[in-house]
Amino acid sequence: xxxxxxxxxxxxxxxxxxxxxxxxxxxxxxxxxxxxxxxxxxxxxxxxxxxxxxxxxxxxxxxxxxxxxxxxxxxxxxxxxxxxxxx
Length: 87
What we know:
Blueprint: H1 18-22, H2 24-35, H3 40-48, H4 56-82
């Protein structure tokens, strides 16, 4: 299992951040797990690599905040990925 570095809460706001870009795969995995009806605790354990039973409050915050940001990416944030970038 590959463990990724993450913050308890992703950045908020209406701009795509470097954190968002580096965590796109996490966002997709969270959206997939949610669409499949996976238990959020299992998703935290698999995607973020820590035991939600040891710190359930933190696990819930991590899951909910990242899933919310993932949903934002599907409605708004993705547009910035499509824009041409300066070299």
